[in-house]
Amino acid sequence: MAPFYAIAWLLLTLLLAACGDDDSPAAVPAASATQWQRVELLFDQPVNDPNPFDRDGQNVQLELRTPGGATRVVDAFATRDYQRSLVGGFEKRTPVTQEMQWRARFAPTETGIWQWRWRWQDGGSEHLGEWSRLEVGAALPQDHGFLRISPRDPRYLELDDGSAYFPIGENMSWYNGEGTYAYDRWIARLAEQGGNYIRLWMPSWAFGLEWTTRDGSGALTSANLGNYDARLDRAWQLDYVIELARRHGIYVMLAIHYHGAFSLTSNVEWADNPYNAANGGPLVQPRELFTDPEAKELVQRRLRYIVARWGYATNILAWELWNEVDLADQPALSELKAWHSEMAQELDRLDPYDHLITTSASQGDALNPGSPFGEIWAVEEIDFSQVHFYAFGGAASDFTQVFPRTINRLRRYDKAILIAEAGVDFRGPAETIESDPEGDGFHDLLWAAPFAGAFGSGMTWWWDNVIDPLDLYFHFGPLAELVEGVDFPGENLVLQNKVLTAPDRRALKVFVLRGETTVLAWIKNAGHLWHSPDAEPVAGASLVIDGLAGGEWQGFWLDTRSGERVELITQAGASLAIPTFAKDIALRLNVAALARVRSAP
Questions:
Q1: Closest CA to 134 of 213, 272, 30
Q2: DSSP class per residue in 451-485
Q3: What is the DSSP letter of 4?
Q4: Global model pTM greater than 0.90
Q5: Which listed residue, of 15, 117, 177, 463, carries a Cα 20 to 30 Å from 513's Cα?
Q6: Residues 110, 156: one domain?
Q7: What integer pLDDT is reported at residue 372 of this predicted model?
């Protein structure tokens, strides 16, 4: 067996060659690492199992001893490397070698001396490798650990070192023909504006690990249910995007199931699903996924691979079991809840880092109090609730009305809430642009969510054919600037809403998040809606922030579109002159003594 250190250095070379880009992520050499950074090791025994994903034959694991004396076991995963190229505007992925290799990834959670060795089973025999040492140094400035529901305020998130995290971003669920090259552009442009969150799916046409193929006549040629060899290039793409996001400080929610694959009514793909008995799978009806023992075992196999390959990633915000499970073919509610509980428990068992777990519905209990779907949020293992909402005409098209009402209904489940998918029209980009040519609806959903009590911005849809081509990224920047450095879990934030009257008698909606040392406010012309615009400037209005602690406060007014600031210093209880604005404006105040300390060189 080759020396383990040499194997890790060899892996460094292999990864650089496989990615084919100078800035591609590389494995950390085995002799040293830093806390929370990825360590990746290559096992030097060949993959000799015809299906190394079921673990019934060959099974490889990495055993770890932490500096504190705890023992952990991390599953290895079978894979191969690829090189990418852009040919005629389309990504081409070429395997570096046809042979698969065993890899293991982990993120050291403590500083000090770690020990590791391989454990493997082959041909019914158990084997143990020799112990090796890994010296783990202090975390780099950008590394803060894994995300948690904050124990200080369960409405918000924080990282292992106590740092607050407030997600601002959008859905980027799949790629276009450019493949990962599209993410190079999308992620960089989002990050330039302070964005720090995206949502990815694992559908058949992108990052999915299982699907079928057909020939020109439509005849089935292959179905790779439970064996991911034929789609390892998709897993390589997901590697690339997750690491690209990490380098840009962006966190990822990963949706594992897509509703259309198991639906008979919405975005239907059931005919091509490898779980379908017509394609050799175990299910006659798609709803049987939630109860059939073989199907559940196959899902758990895939979860094991997902955790083994991407569980190391500190920038995975959450595993999302389903995108819009209510649009899949429905079993009994009790069966749906039991499946979510069982699969979430399996993720908890597999995942040594305890990533957050969630799921989602298209509308669900959030908008229809009579819907039974809300009971999914009562499943103990689901860590936070989500809202998906697309507006149409009438009162429901005002996000400043819908989001507070929706979040208040979801509060009964006592979980943090994210507006995870939203837009002015679900039908398509053309309808969205026609309805909202200035991007005002997108702007409002972005801002309305945090001021309704969500733990992040509203997350827009149509990233690839509205946000990017219309260059609407500038909307993210001012919100990111407003909340920069705010300790959301530590502020004991109180939501306050009021209506003011401007001198010209127009109504102004005021949304306030008042904390112990920080105040955030968003002021909106109530008569301006994306479907009924009023862009006439509002002048001469004033505002008093209720309940401010005594003393001096320092901050700024912020133009929510240009990002221009007007600095101010005020006393508690003072009337603040609101600068002339069109559509909306924002305010941030901090206790002046703290503000001066933070701004000191």
A1: 30
A2: GGT-SS---BS-IIIIITTTT-GGGHHHHHHHHTT
A3: H
A4: yes
A5: 463
A6: no
A7: 74
Q: Cα separation of 466 and 12, whole Å?
A: 38
Please give the residue range of the domain that contains residue 547.
494-599
Report how many domains make up the chain.
3
The type of residue at 411 is: R
Q: How far apart are the first and last CA of the chain?
A: 54
User: Secondary structure of the chain: what % helix, strand, coil (to 5)?
Assistant: 30, 30, 40
**Final residue before a domain boundary, out of 137, 160, 193:** 137
Please name every residue paired with 87 in a beta bridge, in sequence order, or none if there are none.
Answer: 90
Domain end point (choices 485, 507, 540): 485
Residues forming beta bridges with residue 524, ordered by sequence position:
509, 584
What is the per-residue DSSP string for 263-290? Answer: -SSSS--GGG-TTBGGGT-SBSSGGGGG
- Higher-confidence residue: 458 or 598? 458
DSSP lists the bridge partners of residue 136 as: 33, 112
In whole angstroms, give the CA distance from residue 225 to residue 406: 38
What span, in angstroms and rounded, lies between the C-alpha atoms of 115 and 95?
A: 32
**DSSP line for 65-91:** E-TTS-EEEEE-EEE--EEEEEETTEE
Helix (H) or strand (E) holding 298: helix 293-310
Angle at 306 between CA 304 and CA 310, to 5 degrees: 125
Q: What is the pLDDT of residue 32?
A: 85
Same domain, 277 and 194: yes
In a domain, 252, yes or no: yes
One domain for residues 566 and 469? no
Q: Helices 232-247 and 180-192 meet at what angle, rounded to 10?
A: 20
CATH of the domain at 310: 3.20.20.80
pLDDT band at 27 (very low <50, low <70, confident <90, very high): very low
d(CA 555, CA 593): 11
Residue 519's DSSP bridge partners are 514, 589
